[in-house]
Amino acid sequence: STNPTSLFCLVCCCFLMFRKTLAPLPQQVRGVSSLLYRKLGRTEMNVSHLGFGGSALGTMFAKMPPGEAQSIVNLVLQKGINYIDTAPWYGDGRSEQVLGAALQGVPRSSYYISTKVARYKPNPVEMFDFRGERTLRSVDESLERLGLKYIDLVQVHDVEFAPSLDVIVHETLPALKQAQAAGKARYIGITGYSLPVLLDLLDRCGGAVDTVLTYCHFTLNDTTLLEHLPRLQQHGVGIINAAPLSMGLLTPGGPPSWHPAPAHIRQACADAVAYCQGRGVDITRLAMMYSMHAPGVATTLFGTASLADTKKNLASALARPTPEETECLNHITAKYFAPLRGRETWEGLEVAKYWGKVGRALLRERLYPSSSSHNSSSTHTANASQSHPAPSHSHPPTHRPIHSSSHTHSHGHTSPHPATAHVQHPSPQTRS
């Protein structure tokens, strides 16, 4: 496993040694910030190494003061951040609407924006829909909310929750290719927590994907992204790292109640936070500095609904650690995070909860209420739902075809289809 302290020191030294040899900053931000700009995989996008995640702008947790969103967007653009991420899932389209309003009048060539498809409503029976028809409609809805003619990157949201990767390969991605051909999307990406599932999908999609966004896998408490970097790089995809604060685990306030991390991870992070507080060190500052130097990553996303926190996170991400902070990092790494190695993720836990709460039975009943009149496609789904129990934590359900092996998968975009998947989480999530 990788020692976070050693890696942190190495990347910081390399960063400082070779900083002067890098290409100069774009004219509009030269002298304003010390951000770097990196090519996002095989795309033509040169993104700031720090990006802004718009989940909090969806007011998913608390209402924002009037004008706060505009101030936040203005600030991140002024500081040189040119990559902004959002999704319909964030506040039921609210994040996209807020960003659309905030970006009015901003030259379109001065920023890149990404959004997502397939995850939508808090209601579990409306949460996921991977069908091609819904995907195309979602792209149009996002364009309208954002007030744009095209979106730079459209991503399939949380692919591990699809009832089968076949659905994404044969419906979601082809629909995004249609949107791309129509000039509505420049590039196509996939997102998710499960790195094995993301890699499995990359192996199957034949180069249809340009980027991969994963979260909580290059943080103080979890560096498992490094184990999968060689395979990701073999596919030539741009890598986007999100949630440097591990969705609240690495903050004094702690994670929200819905956080999927098991007790041993929560406790290790809480102990690390307490130690830092006792030393007068802000662990969020350590976490931001550390995640900014993820090797092989084009950009790392952070997000907040507070202008003050945005300023703080920006300063932390671009700072150098003090001797006291370095000493603190060494201690929490050795005492709290090193013992987590090998059990630092919550791989499969959320997906298992999904299948346990709504399950294939609910999916079958929702889509195919009359078993006696099923067409062939729905019969395949019913057979599969009867033959496959809820998956274990160690085997994500996306690795199990939802149809039986003796039948082929329906690729139709308009007929009833298992591409609509429904999942219930304790509450909405944010990636910060």
Write the layout of secondary structure elements.
Elements: H1 4-18, E1 37-39, E2 46-48, E3 50-53, H2 68-78, E4 83-85, H3 94-102, E5 112-117, H4 132-146, E6 151-156, H5 165-181, E7 185-192, H6 195-204, E8 211-215, H7 225-234, E9 238-242, H8 263-278, H9 283-291, E10 299-302, H10 307-317, H11 323-337, H12 349-357, H13 359-367, H14 376-387
Parallel strand pairs: 3-4, 3-10, 4-5, 5-6, 6-7, 7-8, 8-9, 9-10
Antiparallel strand pairs: 1-2
Helix pairs in contact: 2-3, 2-10, 4-5, 6-7, 8-11, 9-10, 13-14
Count of DSSP strands: 10
Q: Strand percentage, roughly?
A: 5-15%
- Residues in helices, as a percent range: 25-40%
Q: Could you name the ranges where pLDDT drops below 50 across 5 or more consecutive residues?
A: 13-33, 371-418, 421-430
Rg estimate, integer Å: 21 Å
Mean pLDDT: 81
Could you give the order of the helices and strands? HEEEHEHEHEHEHEHEHHEHHHHH
Structure annotation, total helices: 14
Major sheet summary line:
8 strands, parallel, barrel
The best one-word shape is: globular
Q: What structural class do helix, strand and pairing data support? A: alpha/beta
- What is the terminal separation in angstroms? 24 Å
Sequence of strands across the biggest β-sheet = 3-4-5-6-7-8-9-10
Description:
The protein is an alpha/beta fold and 432 residues long. It is built from 14 helices and ten strands. An eight-stranded parallel barrel has the order 3-4-5-6-7-8-9-10, surrounded by four helices. A two-stranded antiparallel ribbon has the order 1-2. A hairpin with a 6-residue loop joins strand 1 and strand 2. Helix 8 packs antiparallel against helix 11. The radius of gyration is 21 Å and the shape is globular. It starts with a helix and ends in a 45-residue tail after the last helix.
